[in-house]
Amino acid sequence: MRRLLSFCRFESARTRRAAGLLVALWVLGGIDYLFTVWAQRFTQLEEINPWASGLLNSHHFASLAVSKVLLTGLATVIFWRYRHRVLTQVSLWGLVAIHVVLMVQWSNYTADALQLAQATQMQPDGQVTAINYLPPVSSRPDSFTQSSEASPSGSVDQPAPDAPDRSWQLAAIPLHGHE
Questions:
Q1: Nearest CA to 175 among 119, 115, 111, 135?
Q2: DSSP letters for 45-79
Q3: N or C: less crowded end of the chain, CB within 10 Å?
Q4: What is the helix (H) or strand (E) element at residue 42, kind and residue range?
Q5: What is the DSSP letter of 4?
Q6: What is the pTM (predicted TM-score) of this model?
Q7: ∠ CA 35-121-115, rounded to 5°
Q8: How far is CA 76 from CA 19, 21, 52, 116, in A?
Q9: How do residues 129-174 score in pLDDT, each as one tens digit?
Q10: What confidence tens digit (pLDDT) does each residue in 79-119 have?
Q11: How far apart are CA 83 and CA 32, in angstroms?
Q12: DSSP secondary structure letters along 89-149
């Protein structure tokens, strides 16, 4: 027990800082992996890393996890070996900052995905449609919506004379669905 406690004592502040930053990288990397798998399975994620995209598209989530652990482990060994150098400390701080920005991006993506999920529904044929609440139909003609041809009911954006007055319309818009 005494030997284990002596292992946890670090000889310098730089070593403690490196250890803390490496732990942060492991935790943030694990969270990134979980968000990536969640987004691949439940949203329309387009992974920009071609290698990870190939694994995700073929549903090799375990292979992606193993490769992420191996690469992070290799980086940990290299950073730990050179932990006393200033460049290593700066690099670790940069990597942690990049991972924090990535977590902010995941937070925004998740919020948008959840908002979209509340406004979509699965059709019996497997297609996903979005419920889109459109603004009221304007009775004022716009220069952007007028067509060069005259329509039978006047301007393009005006409702028909016998149409009921609506403050909103509900429309189903097809989206790209997962097969």
A1: 119
A2: -----HHHHHHHHTT-HHHHHHHHHHHHHHHHHHH
A3: C
A4: helix 13-42
A5: H
A6: 0.60
A7: 45
A8: 9, 10, 20, 38
A9: 665 544 444 444 444 444 444 444 444 445 555 555 544 444 444 4
A10: 999 999 999 999 999 999 999 999 999 999 888 887 776 66
A11: 24
A12: HHHHHHHHHHHHHHHHHHHHHHHHHHHHHHTEEE-TTS-EEEEEEEPPPPSS--TTT--SS
**CB contact set of 24 (below 8 Å; sequence gap of 6+):** 96, 99
The first and second tokens of residue 100, run together, are 């924090």
* 161 to 50, 66, 154, 168: CA distances (angstroms): 55, 65, 10, 17
Residue where the block lists tokens 């301007």: 155
Residue 141: C-alpha distances to residues 145, 154, 158 (Å):
7, 10, 7
d(CA 156, CA 4) in angstroms, rounded, equals: 78
